[in-house]
Amino acid sequence: MDTKSNTNIPLRQPAEWDKHSAVWSAWPSAADLWLEDLEPARAEVAALFKAIADGGKGEALKIVANGDEAVASARATLKGVNAQIIPGMFGDIWFRDIAPIFVKGPAGLQASCFKFNGWGGKYVLEGDDQVAAFVAQQAGTPALINDWVLEGGSIDVDGLGTALTTRQCLLNENRNPSLSQVDIEARLKTGLGIEHLIWLGDGLANDHTDGHIDNIARFVAPGVVVCMEPFGADDPNKDALLAIIADLKAARDVNGKKLEVMTVPSPGRMENEDGDVMPVSSMNFYIGNTAVVVPLYGAKSDDAAVAAIAKLFPGRRTVGLPANSVITGGGSFHCITQQQPA
User: Fold this and answer.
1) Do the domain assignments include residue 222?
2) pTM of the predicted model, to two decimals?
3) Which residues belong to the active site?
């Protein structure tokens, strides 16, 4: 497979499967947000962190905790794990979207920092818009300031200049109403080294991120993407998932090569206690140095999804872990992690 890329681009966001020196995340800290799910969410997040650390074989953990109680809880729970607990302020734990996106270039590693407006003004929490600068400073990495709104979960890259995204999110008027599609493509090239953008349509039903790509399609190798196929006759995302498969099969990468499209079963229809469809996704996995951690929701397709994802990463162990409490906050494992390339 030809994976030649344009070496004239000064910056490049590495692929997630490239080696990491660390992963940045946060400890569930706000009792008024998590309510009765606070401790269960902490248990699920701790299991994720331990899987990523992999007994010292995985990357280092940089965990930000907000407030004395949260710092003490994180230190006690993660004792013996390769984790640095960093006191810091944030609204909630979704570091994929509020932390910087690390890029590499001639000057070395930089932290590409974007504006954050609470997913289009839906969840504006104190401190979230300061996390990118804070993480860049804590990492000792020069900050590259981008004066427009972008969340890390809205793009997924192959590390060679191609990225996936959705029109529902990046072209949404609640993010950057003055920017056209051409404007956004130009800014992604400047800020992240993205040369070719593959635009998909809509994301999952009831996803408050307005269709983040890390819930519907992911690169897993150069030229190879994975997405979900509908599961069950009542899958609420059937039409959107079928459209995604068709669009990906018709897409080409930066080198003009057709993509290899793999599929795994979606979790199907899952509702919360109020009967609302939840935006659960098998795609919200995190690719660590030694482990791929897949969120589980108690769906009938959980085992099949983990097995299918495991085949995509033969050099890593694939771990399925419960995320039922984390998803009550609106996201899952990929949403709370942001890798720092080695």
Assistant:
1) yes
2) 0.95
3) 335
